[in-house]
Amino acid sequence: MAESLRTQQNLQLETRREQWVAAATNANLYSGAGSLVLLVLICISAGVTAREYRAKSMQSWISTGLTGLGQRIHGGHRLEEIGQIALEYLAGYLRAQVGAGYVVQDGAGFALFGGYALPRERLAETLLVGEGLVGQAARSRELMHVRDVPAGYLPVSSATGQASAAELLVAPAVEHGQVYAVIELGFNRPVTETERALMERASELLAVAIRSGIDRNRLQNLLEETQRQSEELQTQQEELRVSNEELEQQSRILQESQAQMEVQQTELEQTNAHLEAQTQQLEYQREQLLRAQSAMTDKARELELASQYKSEFLANMSHELHTPLNSTLILAKLLADNKPGNLSPDQVKYAQTIYAAGNDLLALINDILDLSKIEAGQATVSVETVTLSKALQTLIDPLRPLAQEKGLTLTATVAPDAPATLDTDPQRLGQVLKNLLSNALKFTEKGSVALHVSRNPDDTLSFAVKDTGIGIPAHQQELIFEAFRQADGSTHRKYGGTGLGLSISRDLAQLLGGSIHVQSTPGEGSVFTLVLPQKLVPPSPEAEPAVPLAAPAPARAAAPVVAPAPSAPALPPVAAPVAPAAPRRAGARSILVIEDDVRFAQILSDLAREMDFDCHLAHNAADGLAYAMHSLPSAIVLDVNLPDFSGLGVLDQLKRNPATRHIPVHVVSVADYSQEALGRGAVGYALKPVKRDELVHALQRLEAKFTQGLRRVLVVEDDERQRESVRHLLTNDDVEIVGAGTAAEALAHLRGSTFDCMVMDLNLPDLSGYELLQQMTEQDGVSFPPVIVYTGRALSRDEEQQLRRFSKSIIIKDARSPERLLDEVTLFLHQVESELSAEHRQMLQLARNRETALEGRNVLVVEDDVRNVFALSSILEPTGIRVKIARNGLEALQALERAGSGGQPAIDLVLMDIMMPEMDGYTAMREIRSRPEWRRLPIIALTAKAMKDDQEKCLAAGANDYIAKPLDVEKLLSLVRVWMPK
């Protein structure tokens, strides 16, 4: 039993020993496998580390090479030195055996600028783009690596032997896509990728250096040329100095000879010499006086030029201030009205203060503008017959509240012997008298201010403004008439103001042919007397200075101006519709606002919506015309100075299109083109800045026009058959014709009702047409509709000017045919042409196709491009216009001098290109406006683009209007019709 137990234990021990041995063996195997894996991982890590080290070494090698290259080519090296330095460095750093470099020439090829270890006879001096490997590398702009180069292709030689290159690197130096040089290197060994990378990056660095070298060479050449010219100038100055010394020496010799001769003369001769010396002294003094006078003249010219520049600046600045001030006044008025009632009383008071300050600023701007116009000689007068009593009443009534507020008595009297009327400019007269009365009210604390009109023995009229104010000392009575001067100009003065009022009044008085005088005693008051002639003779049109038409780098268009126009006269312009082919009516109360000032356009839009209108905005002429043609709005508010086309041209196209001519148009602009706009059918004209009340009145007037059902026409004609003929011609369902055979009947009708248009003959049995218009002007209860003169004879310029004296709001047409009369009446009645009878529509089409306003007129085309001349001639000649050609500004001036003399017809209008040789359009227009006989000549500038500064330069140089290239045929013809003299 014990033996078996021992045997069993031994077996268990043996089994355990075998298990231990197996476990130890497995442990050894696992340990060896883990060691092997660890060894493999260590090897892999060492390989990655070595690879990264080699990559960093290669990158460091590349950076070192680029840094070395940059250091060597940095600095003021010439172009030839840069190429040789770069080639030698790259060949040495890359261990190349041979090399060559080529730099780009001005043409299309490359020139050799260096070689490395290669005989000169093996190098080509010039290469073309695409020629050989160098040319191909320049064309492809990529590095070329050529392997297995044939033996003898690129020899490497020394004093002891010769071999051939095995591989080539051809690298173009490129910057911003432009090749500046090509470098070719030859190697006796394979080229590595690292060396290729270095070569590619070095080529970019080399391109920058070569471009800098090229620029440096150009600057050096310019400097040498400048130095050469300077030396030539110095040489010429030296020659002039020598010539002057010779002349002085000759003068001294002559003086010495004369002295010797005087010594040898007798006593009589000595007396004569003494008298001659006195004469010479007097001559010298005269010369000195002439020199002083010349210097004073030059100084006066400089002062006049400076004053002109100042006046132009003031005029331009005043116009520029009108646009933002316009929005400020309107918005302040909206806030002050507080219609929503959401503002506090203090906020309303603030808005009222802003509005009042804006009006004060507007008055100051207008004063500066008037002063600048007067100083620049650009102020004009419009002579009309003025009724004294009515004019004084209109002047005194607005000032009574101010006088009552200060407790002053304000009166106006007319002497019994004074005439009832005088011929002068009513606007200028009112401006002077209002300023004198305002000054009297401002400087009078108690007492009275009186205006008295009397007649002088020399048939002049005296307007005496007498006050009981502070008075003016005698030594200051002349200073107060100077601009910006006041009797009390200190900073602590009691009375404000700019000191412009009396200066402007004095200049305006001179413009009206009169003068202003002052008599004053300090503490007792002053009397300012305006003396004017009873009849002011206006200057002739040739002598009238031109009023600037607007407030304050063209480039030439390469293409021809326009394509040739067809041989037949152009039909009325029709803009392309926006979407559908047929126009659609926008709505019963829709208004289109064509205005480039975004702020003012938004103000108009808000006001229109407030008055229950549907408003659409267009900020240029093209969009406005397209919307008007497509949507047919009920009314249009139009600006003149649009960025792409003149507003007057837009108005002309609207009124010549049968689909849109009935739409009433109200013009709002900073420039005064009222006569041109009203003459083409506008219902009203407002000058910016516009008050809110004026805008409301304008929209109400437009509403009255497009909602009007029955239109009334007054026909004043003494011949009954002629009157019935006109009635039959104008009869329509919505038109009532009222006839009058005498001027008395016409006045009675005008007192009793309102008419939309008046057709009259000049020869009436009881009064002439001129007398009838004068009585209409003088009577308060008589309406003044647009007047069309229908007569069998042509009106002369003097007769038409006499008719226009009565009112600027009258549109006078010389309608010599039934078709023209029908066309003009339908224009002012705003009738829809499609609703007229077929006979009337045919007559209207016939009247428009005649283009009588252009037939036989002479237009000077100033253009140097023969293609543009041909195109313009093709447009104008089919309308009956005779075209004269000038290739530059000098030829234009010569053509204008020849015109009107020697049997040659006068020029009616000028089309002026801007960019021309010898004399450009700006200079030519300034020269034309400097001549009195050409200041009224219409000029349309042909600009390369319609940018704001381009327009302002043309208008400031003297152009009446502008149109941008490439020209639109219908737009050009519209402007020609607008500005063609009647």
UniProtKB/TrEMBL annotation:
Key word DNA repair present: no
Catalysed reactions listed for this entry: ATP + protein L-histidine = ADP + protein N-phospho-L-histidine
EC number: 2.7.13.3
Spans through the membrane: 29-50
4-aspartylphosphate PTM sites in chain numbering: D639, D761, D913
Coiled coil (residue ranges): 216-292
Gene3D superfamilies hit by this protein: 1.10.287.130, 3.30.450.40, 3.40.50.2300, Histidine kinase-like ATPase, C-terminal domain
Stretches assigned to the HTH cro/C1-type domain: 371-399
Superkingdom of origin: Bacteria
SUPFAM superfamilies: ATPase domain of HSP90 chaperone/DNA topoisomerase II/histidine kinase, CheY-like, GAF domain-like, Homodimeric domain of signal transducing histidine kinase
Enzyme class: transferase
Residue stretches making up the Response regulatory domain: 590-703, 712-828, 858-980
GO molecular function annotations of the record: phosphorelay sensor kinase activity
Domain Histidine kinase, first and last residues per copy: 316-536
Keywords: Coiled coil, Kinase, Membrane, Phosphoprotein, Signal, Transferase, Transmembrane, Transmembrane helix, Two-component regulatory system, Virulence
InterPro entries with a match to the protein in the record: CheY-like_superfamily, Cro/C1-type_HTH, GAF, GAF-like_dom_sf, HATPase_C_sf, HATPase_dom, His_kinase_dom, HisK_dim/P_dom
CDD domains: HATPase_EvgS-ArcB-TorS-like, HisKA, REC, REC_hyHK_CKI1_RcsC-like
Cited function: Member of the two-component regulatory system BvgS/BvgA. Phosphorylates BvgA via a four-step phosphorelay in response to environmental signals.
Protein name: Virulence sensor protein BvgS
Source organism of the structure: Acidovorax temperans
